Fold this sequence. Notes:
Strand content: 15-25%
Strand order of the largest sheet: 2-4-5-7-6
Oligomer: single chain
Amino acid sequence: MTAAQAESAATASYLFSPGEPALPAVDRPREVADLSHALNAMLDQLRTSMEATRRFTADAGHELRTPLTTLGMTLETLQRNPDLPETQRTLALEAMRTEHRRITTLLTGLQALARGDAHALPGRAPVDLTALLTEAVQHAARRHPAVTYRLEPAAPVTVQGWQAGLRLAVDNLLDNAALHGRADGHVDIRLSQHCTTVRITVGDDGPGIPPDQRQAMKERFTRGSRTHAPGSGLGLALVEQQAQLHHGTLHLGEGPGGGLQAVVSLPSAPGPEPHR
């Protein structure tokens, strides 16, 4: 390493090391202090973005290895055996489509998580949760025609937040309930408001999640011991992240019928913007 490279590495290590601000807070003229605070905020955002990028790269590299390997092996089989019987060829093509969907879903989920990790968020705006839930349930019913979605009527409820993020959370809850409930079962959705807290409740009629596994199910790439449904293990992690970004919580419990009941609680009053 040359002297110039060593100096550059030392500077980067200083600027992006965790802990104290890169520019120390000392008594300065107001203009200099304001500039120092602005630069510290910018450097903090750069650290956050770099950490999100590293995590995205590591997660993608780890999780994509298996489906890409499977896809490559199937392609090689088709290439080496151009005269495969039609039945085997059809099965191979369906396997490839399955892996392609798995890769696409995984990358979409990881991208959403990375944006949240980096706080790459638009400004807050009023979101009509009643309308959002109604539209999300209609779309979920088309994606899962064998499942009956039951949305309780609710008065209009508005929160401050990000329309796309809240819709992402709701879609994942609705899909999760359909995939892990009974194949021809019911999913119950309720929107309620108590004082300054708004609650979105989604319950299914599946096997549920044992109490000792519920907290772990909010982590990335975690799948329950009772499920055999396909999935990336990112759904509840995405809901948990969006709940936190909106200054709320995600609670996993047992519904009246024994299935999983997920409750997202959000403040109805505007909260502070997250640290960016």
